[in-house]
Every structure is written in structure tokens, then in C-alpha cells.
Design brief:
Blueprint lengths: L2 H11 L11 E2 L2 H9 L7 E6 L7 H7 L3 E5 L2 H10 L5 E5 L15 E7 L5 H8 L8 E7 H7 L10 H7 L2 E9 L4 E2 L6 E8 L10 H11 L7 H8 L5 H7 L13 H10 L11 E5 L5 E6 H6 L4 E9 L5 E6 L10 E2 L2 E4 L6 H13 L7 E6 L8 E9 L11 E7 L1 H10 L6 H11 L1
Parallel strand pairs: 2-3, 2-5, 3-4, 5-6, 12-17
Antiparallel strand pairs: 1-8, 6-9, 7-9, 10-11, 12-13, 12-15, 13-14, 13-18, 16-17
Helix pairs in contact: 7-8, 8-9, 8-11
């Protein structure tokens, strides 16, 4: 939209840009077209625009042809957006992006997110939509230049801080270009910048407990002028931080802004041993009739394709929704795929039911009551040479996830999961794809 078109559209609907909502409408069409191009929209994508306003970016998103969800908070703009854009492939959501549940978008396609974000809510919006459960392929945001520089800062600079590290752990942030205030109506008093966020490859994200990592980083930066050791002793008492810093080759007087991302990760790993490999577990191995014939270490079972036992527990709440977990990106099999609430192997000496209850405790931190056997899948290459006992249980949550096993999880309606499975079956583990229809039946 040109400046005249923006002014005309605002006049027609009788609205004045709201300072409290951070409304500054982009009117440079070349820039708008360029911003949309950074999404690299392809067949199979679903695009989400946060705060479309009068539609400066939206018109070029519509041209790109991907299904589109628009999230707009200002009720003065909803009628305009629906009249102009809503139709085949475009949904206009009237609501606050900070209250919108982005998980409802799963299953609609490969997600790409764009927005000219209000300065005062940019950080929480980024936190909400750069979510490992959501896993968008690209996020392109226009931000206040100061924030963009913080996201892309380097160690030992004044802009380098906790948000740089916490976001940078899983996301590669590129500062694309600076935008002057003169390309917006009304013109803000500060410059803006466009940034691109892309998920880091699995190989570039060192395993550690994300919650612990973030607690240490935010604690370490809580008082920037203090030595890191003293901040960590306050927020995470217990470990010998002098010895840990020494083992990492760091001086006791080091400050938080002197540590790069890799060093912060090693710091978190040094006080967390939960990411040890599980190759020493001992599994029951069985014959073709599921009769136990021995016990063998996990790695050998998988390497030799020996028949063994496993369980899946599908958990429902009183509303009839199913709880799904997203497997950790560091799992050796089916990383980052969606799965039953709990899945795991039967250890030597365990029954199927005992294993199911143990796995629920270990993976999602819950105790379950009635555990109903639903079906049993036969052993073969399609099940990874596992006899699989499928259970159904009820629980309302909340859950406490084992970081090395589970990325997180949520309840979903049966209708959403059915549609999601049909549209994007590879988002789910092979076993879940087999078991889900049987549980519903």
C-alpha cells in the first residue's frame, strides 16, 4: 500500500493509528515486497502474519499464494481486513498474538511467520512464536533497531545479553537491514530493522537441559557488573562454581558477557548429567511368540535388530483431547517428531504394565491410575522389531518433562490430530501413525 492508500483506508474506517498499540504502517511497497520475499514461500507453507494492520504486507503475502492466517488485535481493523482479504486460504483472527495459541496452527503446513511487531511487545511475541513445539521454518520480524542489534550481538559488547544467548541457542539470527522511520506512517522516532530467524541444525545445538540453561544465563546476566561466579552462586547454589569455571579454562573473575554460546552450553552441561547416553540399559529380548529368552544391552538390541518389547501410553483428558509429546531433538530415533504421551522400552525383568507406569513417571512426571490395554502390535521391521503394547489412560496434567527425552507437549482435539496426520504424516513417529487409529477404534 502506498502512503495515500494507507491514509485513505484509515479515513474510510475512521481510525487514527494508535500509539498505545504501537501502530506504524509501512507504506514503501518495494520494502514490503522485499520483506515478504525473505520468507521464501513455497508450496506446502502456511504463513502467519502478526499485526497485519491495514494490509501493507498482506497484499504481497496473498500474491504469494500460500494459506494465510492474520492475527490482528485492533477491532477497528478487523472489518477492513476481512472485507479485503478473507476468503479461500485466508483466515482473519481477531485477537491478541500474546493470547493466541500457536499450536492450533500445527498440521496446516510448514509454518513461516512474519510481522511488523509493536516495539513494546516484540520480546514476548518472539518468545511465544519461536517455540520448539511450533518449530516454524522461518520468522521475519521488523523490530526496533535497538532490539534487533541485541538479538544479533557478539560477546564482549554492550548489546550482548541474556536474550542474545537464550534465543541464539536454537535460532540463527540474521540482521537483514535497517529501515528509517520515514517509510512508516506515522513515522516513529527511532529506526527499525528487519531480522530473520531460522532454526539451527540439530548438529549445531549441543544437548543440555534448556530450562537449566536459561536459568543460568539469566542469573549470570542479572547483575552485569558482578563477576559471573557470584551471580551463579546466588541463583544456583550448590555446585562448586570456582572449580567449574577453572575446569572450563575460565578465570574466576570472568563476567557473563565474556562467554560465548558454546561456553554457556558447556557451563550448563557441567552441572547436569541427565543427558548421559542410555546404551547401558538392559532390555528383555523375546522370541517370535513374545516369550522372554534373555537380556541384552540397548545398543546391541538395536544394532542386531533383536526382538524386544516396548509400550505406548496414550493419555486423554476429560474433554476427550489427546496429549501428545514432542520427542527431544537429541533422541537417537525419531528426533523432534510427535508421539504418544509416553513411549519406551520394557527393561529386563519388567512386565509391560510396570514399564508403562515407569515410563510415564520418568518422561512426563505423572502417576496414572487405570491403565487400559488397547491393542498389541506384532514384531517386525515396521515396528523396529518391537512387540508393542498400546495402553490408554486419563490424566488432566500438568506434566513435568524429562528434558533429555521430551521437548514438551500439549493436549489436542481429536479432529486436529486427524487432520494433521492426514496433511503431514511425517510429523509423527511411525508407531504413532499405526497406533492412533487403533486407539480411536
Amino acid at each position: 500500500m502506498t502512503l495515500n492508500e494507507i491514509k485513505h483506508a484509515a479515513a474510510v474506517i475512521g481510525m487514527t493509528p494508535s500509539r498505545s498499540l504501537g501502530q506504524n504502517f509501512l507504506f514503501d511497497q518495494n520494502l514490503a515486497r522485499w520483506i515478504v520475499a525473505q520468507l521464501e514461500i513455497e508450496p506446502g507453507d502456511h504463513v502467519v502474519e502478526i499485526g497485519p494492520g491495514l494490509g501493507s504486507l498482506t497484499e504481497f503475502l496473498v500474491e504469494a499464494g500460500a494459506p494465510l492466517t492474520l492475527i490482528e488485535k485492533d477491532d477497528r481493523l478487523i472489518g477492513h481486513l476481512r472485507e479485503r482479504f478473507e476468503g479461500a486460504g485466508v483466515e482473519v483472527v481477531h485477537g491478541d498474538a500474546l493470547e493466541f495459541d500457536p499450536l492450533r496452527l500445527l498440521g496446516r503446513g510448514r509454518l513461516k511467520i512474519v510481522g511488523n511487531l509493536p516495539y513494546y511487545v516484540s520480546t514476548p511475541i518472539i518468545d511465544r512464536f519461536a517455540d520448539p513445539l511450533l518449530s516454524p521454518a522461518r520468522l521475519v520480524f521488523t523490530l526496533q533497531r535497538e532490539l534487533a542489534e541485541r538479538l544479533n550481538a557478539r560477546p564482549r559488547t554492550k548489546d550482548f545479553g541474556a536474550m542474545t544467548i537464550c534465543l541464539g541457542r536454537r535460532w540463527a539470527v540474521d540482521y537483514l537491514r535497517t529501515l528509517p522511520g520515514s517509510v512508516f506512517h506515522p513515522a516513529p522516532k527511532v529506526e527499525s530493522a528487519v531480522v530473520l530467524l531460522q532454526p539451527r541444525p540439530r548438529a549445531d545445538v549441543t544437548p543440555c537441559d534448556d530450562a537449566l540453561f536459561e536459568r543460568l544465563v539469566r542469573g549470570g546476566f542479572s547483575e552485569r557488573r558482578k563477576q559471573l561466579r557470584k551471580n551463579l552462586e546466588r541463583v544456583a547454589p550448590g555446585p562448586d562454581w570456582r572449580e567449574i569455571l577453572r575446569a572450563l579454562g575460565l578465570a574466576e573473575t570472568v563476567r557473563a558477557e565474556e562467554l560465548d554460546l558454546a561456553t554457556w552450553t558447556r557451563l550448563a552441561q557441567s552441572v547436569d548429567e541427565t543427558f548421559a547416553q542410555h546404551g547401558t540399559e538392559i532390555f528383555s529380548i523375546v522370541d517370535e511368540n513374545d516369550v522372554v529368552i534373555g537380556a541384552v544391552p540397548r545398543d546391541e538390541v538395536h544394532a542386531r535388530n533383536l526382538r524386544h518389547r516396548a509400550i505406548h501410553v496414550m493419555i486423554f483428558n476429560r474433554a476427550g483431547e489427546i496429549f501428545l509429546q514432542k520427542r527431544s531433538m537429541w533422541k537417537d530415533r525419531n528426533p523432534s517428531q510427535w508421539d504418544s504421551a509416553t513411549a519406551g522400552h520394557v527393561d529386563a525383568g519388567e512386565t509391560y504394565e510396570n514399564a508403562a507406569r515407569r515410563e510415564v513417571r520418568e518422561e512426563i512426571g505423572a502417576e496414572i491410575g487405570a491403565l487400559t490395554p488397547v491393542c498389541k502390535l506384532g514384531c517386525g521391521p515396521e515396528t523396529g522389531w518391537e512387540f508393542l503394547q498400546i495402553y490408554r489412560a486419563e490424566h488432566e496434567g500438568p506434566f513435568q518433562f524429562a528434558a533429555q527425552e521430551v521437548e514438551g507437549g500439549a493436549y489436542f482435539s481429536i479432529e486436529q490430530v486427524r487432520a494433521w496426520l492426514a496433511a503431514r504424516p511425517k510429523d509423527f513417529t511411525p508407531i504413532f501413525r499405526m497406533a492412533f487409529p487403533r486407539v480411536l477404534a
